[in-house]
Amino acid sequence: MLYLALAFILLALVLFWLSSRQRRAAGLPGGRVIYTDTRNWGAVEKPLYDPNLGLTGKPDYLVEQGGRIIPVEVKSGRTPDAPYDSHIFQLAAYCLLVHKTLGKRPPYGIIHYPGRDFAVDYTPALEASLLDMLANIRRDEHRANVGRSHEEAHRCARCGFRNVCNQRLSSA
């Protein structure tokens, strides 16, 4: 009976260690995972949706930590020196959706790259910039002619509209 108890304790320690290792690899802060969009942790949750904004999103993780909800977005590409603006706005959209759908305003969110994590404060200024961007997107949805908004050849080369775009970058 003693050996069986020791075996269960050892098994529990190994499982705890593996769980902790997986949590660190995903860039998750301490707390309880309450939502996940990865098949690694179980069934994929339904998306967060705000009908007033017409905004839908599926953060990789939502972690409840001391009554706060922290969105975590995991990126698999190379680790930049600072998070990309597009990733910051994606995370800000998740923060907004958490606030609108769950009633708790996240103080920050986390962008996890393979080599580094970035905590991004969800400030009123970031929220205002996001809402301005969403308004511009909604306005542009109804315009017949919208110009490209970047000068990055590598993005143009991978664009799904490249074959029909008359504004594609020639070197892409």
CATH class of the domain at 26-139: Alpha Beta
Major sheet details: 5 strands, mixed
Helix vs. strand class: alpha+beta
Relative helix content: 25-40%
How does the overall form come out from the CA principal axes?
Answer: globular
Calculate the terminal CA-CA distance, rounded to whole Å: 69 Å
Strand content: 15-25%
Low-confidence stretches: none
Averaged pLDDT, please? 81
Order of helices and strands: HEEEEEHEEHH
Main sheet: which strands, in order across?
A: 1-4-5-6-7
| CATH architectural type of the domain at 26-139 | Alpha-Beta Complex
CATH domain topology of the domain at 26-139: Lambda Exonuclease, Chain A
**E-strand count:** 7
User: What's the gyration radius in Å?
Assistant: 20 Å
Count of separate DSSP helical elements: 4
Describe this structure in words.
- This protein is α+β, with helices and mostly antiparallel strands and 172 residues long.
- It has a domain at 26-139: Lambda Exonuclease, Chain A, CATH 3.90.320.10.
- 38% of the residues lie in helices and 20% in strands.
- It contains four helices and seven strands; from the N terminus they run H-E-E-E-E-E-H-E-E-H-H.
- It has helices at 2-25, 85-102, 124-141, 153-157; strands at 32-36, 48-50, 55-57, 61-65, 68-74, 108-113, 116-121.
- It has a five-stranded mixed sheet with strand order 1-4-5-6-7, with helices on one face. A two-stranded antiparallel ribbon has the order 2-3.
- Strand 6 and strand 7 (116-121) form a beta hairpin.
- It is globular, with a radius of gyration of 20 Å.
- The termini are far apart.
- The mean pLDDT is 81.
